[in-house]
Amino acid sequence: MAAVVPHGRKPNDPSGLFDLVEIERIADGLALPVSCRGWELPDRAKHSADQGDLFVGSIWSSVGKWFIAVTEGRKMVVTNGMHRLKLKKGKEDYLLDLVAGFTSEAYRIQARAYTTGSDGLADLSAEGLGSILLPKITDPEARQSIRAIVTALLGGKSTVEQSVKRLTSAGQIPAIDVRPRQAHVVLV
Q: Which of 56, 44, 62, 60 is nearest to 123 (CA)?
């Protein structure tokens, strides 16, 4: 139903503007990317993202993290600590089952069971990911509820921050041009 797309290389566009998604900026199906120039991208920024791509954590401690990419025409780059999934043609309706499955404890238990490697950095392989069993949602009301959530995620209307960023980009909210902090721990 979905194919795992291997990561590529860090983009080679030093002056290009990118939306960077790091693991700590992912929660409950959405990502809160940080804008940065190509020269600022970390070496681990190796996944490009297309609208609607699914990303799931590939490191033991983050297998419960997942999101649907909302690129809105911008260049999005995602850390290599994730697996990138593309739905196969004709399998789009399974998106609801994947979203419901990725949020379940059953998924997290199976994903951790398939990880291999050293403590803390054990990795979920693409083969392991493909071996995880997820249920198909058969209840029509449940499918409709999940469909509403997925529609909101795909529309980028999941958080106040995303809504404000979109309105600011469209010029509907005035923006103050400030230089972003390099890190959240820098005080001066």
A: 60
DSSP result, 3-35? EEEPP------TT-EEEEE-GGGEETBEE--EE
- 115-161 pLDDT per residue, tens: 998 876 899 999 999 999 998 999 999 999 889 888 888 887 666 66
Give CA separation, 91 vs 3, 149, 160, 170, in Å.
11, 18, 31, 33
CA–CA separation, 119 vs 20, rounded Å?
26
Which CATH architecture does the domain made up of 2-169 adopt? Alpha-Beta Complex (3.90)
